[in-house]
Amino acid sequence: MAADKKFTKQGDLMNARTASCYAAIMIIGLGQNDSNSLYSAVKALRGLGESTLKMGLNEVSSSQLADEIELLAMEKDVLNLKPSNPSEYGEKAKRLQELSMRFRSQTAGKILIIPELFWKQTIAGESKALPLAAMAEEALGESLILDNPKAAAEHYQSARLWWMQAGRQDMAQTASSFVQSYGRAAKCWFCGREVSGENIHFVTMSSDLTNLIRRSADESALPSYDQSGSGVYACKGCYGAIYKQADSLALQRTKELEVRIDTQLDEIRQQLSAIQSTLRQMNR
Ligand SMILES: [Zn+2]
Fold it and tell me: How far is the CA of 240 from the centre of ligand 1 (A)?
């Protein structure tokens, strides 16, 4: 094959690859920015090797663009994870941490191309790293809450600091409320166990407390009732036992009631049919 023909063929191939890159990127711009579309664009860009693409008014390197889109795809994937147990939370935390570090190392000092091109959003690469680091700490907190609520509270404290750095006061506030509730310790009103982790390891059960009863509980270093005095603290063990006992009693009462209602209904039916037969006899 003549050299020029070969080059033409190679040129055609490059043109075709470049066109498929633009197509894959345009699909993202058209709103299909699910991770599959993003990964397709990454694959197309990687196939181009090291090349330069025109993106709006700018020229960008294909490999830089591939790196950025890959990070955005990974971000979507990790944010979609819905962990349901400690080890899944631990796994999510690890992936969030790794991604945060990758944003920091690969996009620091750069403005992300895709958000700017399609959504007119000026996002500095490193600003992506901060929320991911915060979420990693929160996921770590959740992975530890069943075994070690104090450590979980400490991770939420780190998350709070990351959110503050990211300028997300609202998220910092939410993290702060977890620091408080996970770090809060109480003494069970019923069994006297001392536990940390409000709403996880102990809960508030509504009750009526007289001043005398409150004073008798005030000798303990940890509170056993909430300050409004409308409820007492119960460890999850006591709460669970009380709840299940109450539930089974309620079920039993309902069944007894059903039997009584059924009996009464039978009596009413019999009376009704007696009245009907009397009426029929009268009408003859
Ligand atoms: Zn208890």
Answer: 9
Say which DSSP state 70 is in: H
From ligand 1's centre to the CA of 175, what distance in Å? 27
Q: How far is the CA of 24 from the centre of ligand 1 (A)?
A: 59
The pTM score is: 0.78
State what percent of residues in the chain have pLDDT above 90: 65
Q: Are 182 and 166 in contact (CB under 8 A)?
A: no
Task: Point out the residues of the chain with pLDDT beneath 50.
Answer: 1, 3
* CA–CA separation, 189 and 218 (whole Å): 12
CB 96 within 8 A of CB 132: yes
SS3 187: strand
Distance in Å, CA 199 to ligand 1 centroid: 13
How many angstroms separate the alpha carbon of residue 244 from the centre of ligand 1? 14
- For residue 176, what pLDDT is reported? 98
Tokens representing residue 12 in the block: 């055609």
Task: Identify the CA nearest to 41 among candidates 30, 238, 243.
Answer: 30
pLDDT digits (tens, 9 = 90+) for 36-85: 989 999 999 998 888 888 887 788 889 989 999 999 999 999 999 999 99
Residue 90: predicted pLDDT: 98
Cα(193) to centroid of ligand 1, in Å?
Answer: 6
Rounded CA-CA distance 186/225 in Å is: 8
What spacing in Å lies between the alpha carbon of 115 and ligand 1's midpoint? 52
Percent of the chain that is helix, strand, coil (3-state, to 5): 70, 10, 20
- Distance (Å) from CA 187 to ligand 1 centroid: 8
CB atoms within 10 A of CB 54: 10
| Residue 16 in tokens | 């075709």
